[in-house]
């Protein structure tokens, strides 16, 4: 925030500012109160308002802080400090549009105010206005060439834009200027991971954690890096750091549930609540640990999860009851322990070589019978399920999802293939109105949950999909499943540079974007001959 110069002659203001600087916020507020109530528009009152705003913010009274800074702006509109300080606070509160307006007010009055321009750049970056953000960061560096934080943030922005060489240059400049800047080590780790310099990535993550031991993003980044490299022992342990942060979704579980978190204690005769914190794909993938928990002696295993999983997992082995989240939370005090399925590998010391077999899901026969007629109408063909888009709210959806179903068009030319859309949500409208030259059976919105999807997949010969829950569902059903993976931010569970998966060694094949690929065309080109070969083998089995 903008510096305050305590040059006001009023001794009370100086004393109040001393209290503020020492953290005695209530005492400072009491001292400046008479000035706050006065009608004076002089420097003493402006400084008193600034002190009052900072002290209110220190006491968690953000509404009062906002009020004081807005009064300061009203009585001294040409003084930029209140605009900037209020902008920083509103930015932190997520009111970024208002913050942006305030920073632009500062820059209109004083174009070379580097701090306001830096904060404006960070807002533009957060809102994916990358070109404008880059311009602002470069302006900051023209004003302050030795601003390590600006070099670091610009490097982070350039990494997002796949301008890796430029990104590395700016991040390393930041580290030359400030070797102890933990955020720069973290950004370097992320960049090295993208360009496949994994040893350097690991070193940078570890340096960030030395500098800031409680650095959540670095701890989680290191954990997933290690797991992607097959180093599960330390990876699983570090991944538990997701529980150390109360505002993180996982950390909230500790306060929501009325029993102890399982830390690997003996389960013989104990009741266990398995609590869903992660996505549908995670739950299907790690459902393999339900029978493992049961085999460890747990007397009663209940699963608290979203409704989309209920019918699918209700009849699965290893689970005695499937509850919705509200019911599970209400009953949690009656359990001995709670755990997440994603924590189970830690406690069972899972290695790449000891991954349990997938939970073999059993689709409901009545649902199979319900979905069979439209699929059976695709006579004399190999039936292939397709998913080309994931949940748009996923952090990596822009990279993992295909632009449209038309991206898959080269597959239509393979003789003997018929395609069934397994698409839900994003992309479903495309499936419903596919062009005539794209032979795609759309089953409509009657597919309500993963139990329906499982019944449809049971009638298919192959599933080709992007990295979504359907990949884990098809693989757990034992169906051949080909997964399209992005080059950027590929999920740790698919590991590095493999075309198979130790999680599904029998039936999953991975088709990865390669370094330098722009879009998915080359990936689809590689699938076409593989699909022709698959169809040839399938015809021999008919």
UniProtKB/TrEMBL annotation:
First and last residues of every TPR repeat: 80-113, 148-181, 182-215
Keyword DNA damage applies: no
PROSITE patterns listed in its UniProt record: TPR (PS50005)
Entries under InterPro entries matching the protein: Glyco_trans_9, TMTC_O-mannosyl-trnsfr, TPR-like_helical_dom_sf, TPR_rpt
Keywords in alphabetical order: TPR repeat
Keyword Transmembrane: no
A Pfam cross-reference name: TPR_16
Molecular function GO terms recorded: glycosyltransferase activity
The protein's name: TPR protein
Organism: Caballeronia sordidicola
């Amino acid at each position: 925030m903008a510096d305050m110069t305590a040059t006001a002659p009023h001794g009370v203001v100086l004393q109040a500012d001393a209290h503020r600087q020492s953290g005695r916020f209530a005492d400072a507020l009491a001292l400046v109160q008479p000035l706050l109530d006065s009608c004076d528009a002089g420097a003493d009152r402006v400084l008193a308002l600034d002190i009052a705003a900072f002290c209110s913010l220190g006491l968690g009274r953000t509404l009062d802080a906002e009020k004081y800074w807005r009064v300061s702006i009203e009585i001294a509109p040409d003084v930029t400090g209140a605009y900037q300080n209020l902008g920083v606070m509103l930015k932190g509160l997520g009111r970024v549009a208002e913050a942006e307006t305030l920073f632009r007010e500062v820059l209109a009055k004083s174009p070379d105010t580097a701090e306001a321009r830096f904060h404006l750049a960070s807002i533009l970056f957060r809102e994916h206005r990358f070109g404008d953000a880059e311009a602002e960061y470069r302006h900051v560096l023209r004003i302050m060439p030795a601003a390590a934080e600006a070099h670091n943030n610009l490097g982070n922005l350039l990494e997002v834009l796949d301008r890796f060489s430029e990104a590395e240059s700016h991040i390393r400049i930041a580290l030359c200027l400030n070797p102890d800047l933990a955020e720069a080590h973290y950004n370097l780790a992320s960049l090295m991971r993208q360009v496949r310099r994994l040893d350097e990535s690991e070193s940078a993550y570890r340096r960030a954690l030395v500098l800031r031991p409680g650095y959540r993003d670095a701890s989680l980044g290191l954990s997933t890096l290690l797991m992607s490299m097959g180093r599960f022992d330390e990876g699983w342990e570090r991944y538990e750091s997701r529980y150390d942060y109360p505002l993180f979704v996982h950390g909230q579980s500790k306060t929501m549930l009325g029993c102890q978190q399982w830390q690997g204690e003996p389960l013989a005769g104990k009741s266990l609540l398995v609590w869903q914190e992660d996505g549908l794909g995670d739950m299907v993938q790690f459902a393999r640990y339900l029978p493992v928990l049961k085999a460890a002696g747990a007397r009663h295993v209940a699963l608290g999860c979203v409704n989309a999983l209920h019918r699918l997992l209700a009849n699965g082995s290893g689970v005695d009851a499937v509850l919705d989240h509200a019911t599970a939370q209400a009953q949690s005090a009656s359990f001995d322990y709670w755990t997440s399925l994603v924590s189970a590998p830690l406690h069972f010391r899972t290695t790449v070589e000891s991954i349990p077999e997938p939970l073999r899901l059993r689709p409901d026969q009545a649902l199979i019978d319900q979905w069979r007629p439209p699929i059976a109408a695709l006579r004399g063909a190999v039936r292939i399920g397709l998913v080309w888009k994931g949940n748009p709210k996923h952090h990596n959806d822009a990279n993992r999802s295909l632009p449209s179903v038309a991206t898959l068009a080269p597959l239509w030319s393979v003789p003997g293939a018929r395609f069934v859309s397994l698409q839900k949500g994003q992309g479903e409208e495309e499936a419903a109105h596919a062009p005539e030259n794209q032979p795609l059976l759309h089953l409509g919105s009657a597919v309500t949950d993963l139990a329906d999807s499982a019944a449809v997949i049971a009638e298919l010969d192959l599933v080709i999909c992007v990295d979504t829950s359907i990949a884990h569902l098809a693989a757990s059903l034992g169906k051949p499943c080909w997964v399209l993976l992005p080059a950027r931010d590929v999920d740790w569970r698919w590991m590095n540079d493999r075309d198979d998966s130790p999680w599904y060694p029998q039936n999953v094949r991975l088709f990865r974007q390669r370094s330098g690929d722009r879009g998915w065309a080359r990936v689809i080109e590689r699938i076409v001959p593989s699909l022709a070969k698959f169809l040839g083998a399938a015809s021999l089995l008919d």
